[in-house]
Amino acid sequence: MQTNRPLIVDLDGTLLRSDMLVESAFAFLRHSPFRAYKLLTWLLKGKANLKAKLAAAVPLDVSLLPYDEGVISFLEREKEKGRTLVLATASHQDYADAVATHFGLFDQVLGTIGSTNLSARNKRDVLVGKYGEKGFDYIGNSHDDLTVWTSAHKAHLANPESGVQSAAAKLGNLDQVFRTPTPVWRAWMKQLRVHQWAKNALLFVPLLAAHRVGEFELFLTGIVAFLLFSLCASSVYILNDLLDLEDDRQHSSKRLRPLASGVVPIKAAVVVFPALLLIAFTGAAWLMPWKFVLALFGYYVLTLAYSLFLKRTMTVDVITLAMLYTARIVAGTFAYNFSLTFWMLAFSMFLFLSLALVKRYAELHESRMKNNKEFAPGRGYYPGDLQMISSLGAASGYLSVLVLALYIQDQNTLALYQRPQVIWLACPLLLYWITRIWMITHRGQMHDDPVVFAMKDRNSLLFAVLFASVFWFAS
Predict the structure, then answer these.
(1) 15-48 per-position pLDDT tens digit
(2) Is 152 left (phi over 0), alpha (psi -120 to 50) or beta?
(3) Are 18 and 270 within 8 A, CB to CB?
(4) Mean pLDDT computed over 327-350
(5) Distance between CA atoms of 401 and 259, rounded to whole angstroms?
(6) Cα distance between residue 208 and residue 328, in whole Å
(7) Tell me: the pLDDT tens digits for 62-121?
């Protein structure tokens, strides 16, 4: 049945499966990390002032934002009936206008402008002033919207926040609820990148190299270190995705990440990532040696620097990735109160530099397959750099084999192993694996992080068993 009442539509969390204030704040942090203090100084003058400053400083591409298809379909049906649609949002007027222009559905746009933050009571007062008490229908999702629904004729809910639906039902004007079904726990597991925790198994490498993996107390220490490091890493993954939202949405596969696609609420992510970081460092300070805490802190600082600017600098990005892998081995060494060895550090740096270059090559190969000859978004490379990257990556991988060969002749190695000459068998095994990884990548078949790929690839797992067996037999 057609109605003359205008339908008022909220933006954040309703039409948009995200939040413009959080989006713009992290976009600002990404482009101006050394001006982060500005966010606080702007906020001290009011939330409306913060939104105005961010809107002036950060132009967002609204065409890339994750919108709710169910809400859009509903609005399109109502528009076809001739109904007046109004976008009323607490987001800044500039962003609201851009969204309205993108869709071409709205007859009027109301947003935060000047010193008035168009939210809760302020929004209700403006709408009542324009359309009268009970003179409009309103679709929203948050606790702030409850105030607006008290003055609306009908209340529509879109993916309501916890407790909102039951509170709205008590108002007596609830009409319909739009929900986009999402397997929340799976989305969070993907967002935390639990599958990437496998990389943190590198913390056990020093224990294996020292031939002390059978000591229960040390093994338990490794488990604790693994869990703490993994929580810290997940915190970093969330922060990285928050900073990379716009770039991820331009990528063929990364656009499907939980935050980029809006499956995981962006406000929840802002709370979860510092909480995980706090748990990781509190646990490390309480349970682990101080050197491990220092190594964990160094890993976090380096990862933060990588997320903010190092990843966009050619060559520096892959060296940083190699250092981050090596940092896990360093942290493991400190967790067990072992001494660092030159051979382990040199071997891991060359090997993981090769794998970091594999990752970059795979990304650029995919870009070239799409006939993209332009600068890769958020990276310091062009698709035309493929040949140079493959040369550097293969050379780095083979240098790790050289380090392994030299390690066999070290006096400490001769003392540690009963049959050190057997370790020579590990060299052709490693040569085969590195060559195979690069051939797979060259053929465009590397669609994952190479370390994660190796942990799922049968040939790589067989290589790992044979490689470990060589060292076991040598000992």
Answers:
(1) 999 999 999 999 999 889 889 999 999 999 999 9
(2) beta
(3) no
(4) 91
(5) 39
(6) 14
(7) 999 999 999 999 999 999 999 999 999 999 999 999 999 999 999 999 999 988 899 999
| Residue 2 confidence (pLDDT) | 53
Indicate the SS3 state at residue 445: coil
Q: Which residues contact 176 (CB under 8 A, 6 or more apart)?
A: 156, 157
Cα–Cα dist 463/341, whole Å:
24
pLDDT band at 444, cuts 50/70/90? confident
Dihedral angle sign, alpha carbons of residues 230, 233, 239, 242: negative
In a 3-state reduction of DSSP, which class is residue 102? helix
Three-class DSSP category at 153: coil
Whole-Å CA distances, 473 to 97, 334, 421, 432: 70, 27, 10, 20
Q: Please state, in angstroms and rounded to a whole number, the distance separating the CA atoms of residues 141 and 163.
A: 10
**Phi, psi (degrees; rounded to nearest 5) at 443:** -85, 0
What percentage of the chain exceeds 90 in pLDDT?
67
- Indicate the average pLDDT of the chain: 90
Residue 225 has which token pair? Answer: 């270190």
φ/ψ bin of 193: left (φ > 0), alpha (ψ from -120 to 50), beta (otherwise) = left
Model pTM score: 0.85
Q: What is the DSSP string of 241-277?
A: HHHTHHHHHTSTTGGGSHHHHTSS-HHHHHHHHHHHH
Distance, CA of 230 to CA of 193 (rounded, Å) = 9
Residue type, 104: G
DSSP letter for each residue of 6-62: PEEE-TBTTTBSS-HHHHHHHHHHHH-GGGTHHHHHHHTT-HHHHHHHHHHH----G
pLDDT over 60 at 13, yes or no:
yes
> What is the pLDDT, as a whole number, of residue 300?
95
Neighbouring residues of 186: CB distance < 8 A, sequence distance ≥ 6: none
Ranges of H-type helices in 370-425: 386-408, 411-416
pLDDT of residue 385: 82
Q: Where are the alpha helices (DSSP H) in 309-449?
A: 316-335, 342-369, 386-408, 411-416, 426-442
In whole angstroms, give the CA distance from residue 473 to residue 369: 45
Helix extents (H) in 163-215:
164-169, 184-192, 205-209
User: 392: which 2 tokens?
Assistant: 């550097």
